[in-house]
């Protein structure tokens, strides 16, 4: 499928897809005219990359993970370690946001009582 079709299917902009390719996060096949050709297996991969980005994984770490993924199954243990480390970070961030949310709720309640 073309980059436009792929963008529509994944919900990731064409410019983001080109950026991911430029940074080496995705390897995209090309046709004889040098046009990108995305396949079904690329869908879940770029969606996963987007989730890593959305959860705050640094680009450098995403690149390292991607490089390992393209090296194959011999890197599974290292990829697992990266994801476990990132999950700890995400959990810490979740707890912080929960604390922020509770603080906001408390302040909102205080204001409501003042009215």
Automatic annotation (TrEMBL):
Domain of life (superkingdom): Bacteria
SUPFAM superfamilies in the record: Putative DNA-binding domain
Database matches in CDD domains: HTH_YyaN
Domain HTH merR-type: 1-68
One GO molecular-function entry: DNA binding
Keyword entries, A-Z: DNA-binding, Repressor, Transcription, Transcription regulation
SMART domains reported for this sequence: HTH_MERR (SM00422)
One Pfam short name: MerR_1
Protein name per UniProt: Putative HTH-type transcriptional regulator
Species for this entry: Clostridium fungisolvens
Lineage, highest ranks first: Bacteria, Bacillati, Bacillota, Clostridia, Eubacteriales
